[in-house]
Automatic annotation (TrEMBL):
The chain crosses the membrane at residues 21-47, 53-74, 86-106, 112-133, 145-173, 179-198, 232-252, 258-280, 300-318, 330-351, 371-391, 397-415. This is MFS transporter. The keyword NAD does not apply. It is found in: Cell inner membrane. Pfam families: MFS_3. One of its GO terms (molecular function) is transmembrane transporter activity. It comes from Microbacterium keratanolyticum. Residues 20-422 form the Major facilitator superfamily (MFS) profile domain. Its main location: membrane. One of its GO terms (cellular component) is plasma membrane. It comes from the Bacteria. It is a multi-pass membrane protein. Keywords: Cell membrane, Membrane, Transmembrane, Transmembrane helix, Transport.
Amino acid sequence: MPPSRRGHLIDLRPLRESPAFARMWIGSTLSGLGGQLTIVTVMLHVFDLTASTFAVAMIAVAGLVPMILAGLYGGMLADAFDRRRVALIAATVSFASTAMLAALTWTGAETIWWLYGLSMVNAAASSVGLATRTAIVPRLIPRELLAAASALNGVSMGMSVMVGPALAGLLVALTGFGWTYTIDVFLMLSMFLGLWTLPKLLPEGTVVRPGLASLVDGWHFLRKSVNIRTQYLLDITAMTFGNPLALFPALGTVLLGGGALTTGLLTASVAAGTFLSSLFSGRIVHYRWHGRGIERAVQAYGGAIALFGIVLLAGVFLPGATEQSPNVPLLIAACVALALSGATDNISSIFRMTMMQAAVPDTMRGRLQGIFVVVVAGGPRLGALYVGALATVGALWFPPLLGGILVIVIATWIARLTPGFRTYDAENPTA
């Protein structure tokens, strides 16, 4: 069916045409749900132990260096060995670290340093696993379905982040931290099913063994790839200055009210926007000017984050919220702004992921995906540091308001410096 006759609903052909992709997608969705459950629970756990927004922000910062090293090395592994085996090993490490979180919590032996340490291990393993699984996708489906597959991954992520944080807030409020970690342990088992049934996936083309030569080879390719480099810069700008996640526990306590449930709702709102934009991506995946689409989506993302800051500023003049009694109108407005941010970020992600998978040759795909994971996951961790530091010396509303404005200005400037990026054509992909 030609693009003009397609509806707005998501294209499901990748699931129908590739059973292997469908199994991996289901496994990633269920394990992603558990992963989000644990991420939010660790945030709440640290806040419960310290009552410090900065301590919550430092969870993300602590995982930054391990995540960067693991992402880069994991990408090299994915370009040198069977990608199925690399992904399975990464999943095993994630499973073990989550099981230890549960065991420590049930025995009362958890400390903030254990939470930080195991979060670092999880960040590293997740970095390797995500880079490897993403590099696998183009081997399972044809190029013309890559954008649709990226939209399906948006549905997976949206469902995981939408349900996981809300469920985490509910479980923590009703049963405590131990059960939440335990549920993730069981959900992680689905990842093994999705990966175990994949065929052997050795990289195509010339294989470069992991090491300095492989890293330099990937760096030289990236240095010549203006389009890939530009999308990295745009994404890290958005995630550094426009990621207010570390504020959520404090907002549920002192500004919006509602405690842990508010933390879950705010995080789930971002995912709701991601989910809905993927669900109605039928026309979006056929837009061929991906560079222009990324630029506009990032600018819109900055606008949504600035709107979130304005909502929080209004909360300063409408006091009265408590942990037990939230300010419902403000909470709804904050959730709408965050849903808009999730939708615009996901649209950008669809175009970015498709560009990465279509324009980068298979022999380089693991290394470039490793760098991509570092950018995607490293940006939010820098953003956590930005938000935590600014919130410590100023008001909670200031980091998102200033950050949203900075995202719009910097993204516009970067795109103007690379006019070729704006004319990138998905029908003729070039790195």
